[in-house]
Amino acid sequence: MPSEELITEQVKLRMEVIQSLTEPCDRKTYSTKKIEAAQKLGVSIRQVERLLQKWRE
């Protein structure tokens, strides 16, 4: 079972990655950022898009 510190670090990482995707940039850069975010978080690009949608709501 993961410790609270590990969970907190995962949440912080996820928040940082999602916030970086909300910064203005061109389409090509945004696409690259999404791919990098998915790799960094260990999830699919679609999951990153879902996280962004939840963030915006």
Q: Termini, distance in Å? A: 30 Å
Structural category: mainly alpha
Which sheet architecture does the biggest sheet show? Answer: none
Query: In total, how many beta strands?
Result: 0
Strand content: under 5%
List low-confidence stretches.
none
Name the overall outline. globular
Average residue-wise pLDDT: 88
H-E order: HHH
Residue share in helix? over 70%
Rg estimate, integer Å: 12 Å
Number of helical segments with 4 or more residues: 3
Explain what this protein looks like in three dimensions.
The protein has 57 residues and is an all-alpha fold. The protein has a domain at 24-57. The chain has helices at 4-21, 27-41, 45-56.
Can I get a quick summary?
It is built from 3 helices and no strands. The protein is mostly helical.
